[in-house]
Design goal:
This protein has about 160 residues and is mainly alpha-helical. It has one domain (about 5-155). The chain has helices at about 5-10, 15-45, 50-80, 90-125, 135-150. The termini are far apart.
Length: about 160
């Protein structure tokens, strides 16, 4: 029993403690980020600007996934020395980090464009002179689709605005 609680036994658990610390800090960072976004959302809902609402809503889920996946990749990087597998090599982890960032930025941009377009369209249609505006809904949908294609989205991926 004394061997189990000995100092050499605790050194063997060193990487496990690091993993636990990284997972805990990752979850804590995600919680703080989501609470901060919620507090900003309360403030942004009081404004009449549609862009800040769309930006915040578009960033919420990709930011959450970014924090979780970066923490996971960091934990895998720590365990690399204890797991002999080419899949967990440093070059593969760096590549995975880059792919995660690119995919999440693309997801954010697609969501931002779609949410902004939808909120602007709702504001136009809810106005007193919905047909007498400088930006009609058809032009807005065309601009959204053009921006979505420039952002590298496949044709069928954008939401149809109707």
């Amino acid at each position: 029993m004394q061997e189990f609680f000995s100092f050499s036994s605790l050194q063997d658990l060193d990487w496990g403690a690091e993993l636990f610390l990284i997972v805990t800090l990752t979850l804590l960072a995600r919680l703080v980020a989501l609470r901060l976004l919620t507090a900003l959302g309360v403030h942004f809902n009081q404004t009449t600007n549609v862009w800040d609402d769309a930006l915040l809503e578009a960033a919420r889920r990709p930011l959450s996934w970014l924090i979780l996946l970066q923490g996971l990749l960091m934990a895998v990087g720590i365990s690399e020395g204890y797991i002999d597998d080419i899949l967990f090599s440093a070059s593969n982890l760096n590549l995975a980090r880059q792919v995660v960032v690119v995919v999440l930025i693309a997801w954010f941009l697609v969501r931002f464009i779609s949410l902004a377009e939808e909120r602007i369209r709702q504001r136009i249609l809810a106005g007193d002179n919905a047909e007498q505006t400088s930006l009609d809904p058809t032009t807005l949908v065309a601009a959204q689709r053009g921006l979505g294609r420039r952002a590298g989205c496949p044709r069928g991926y954008q939401q149809d605005a109707g």
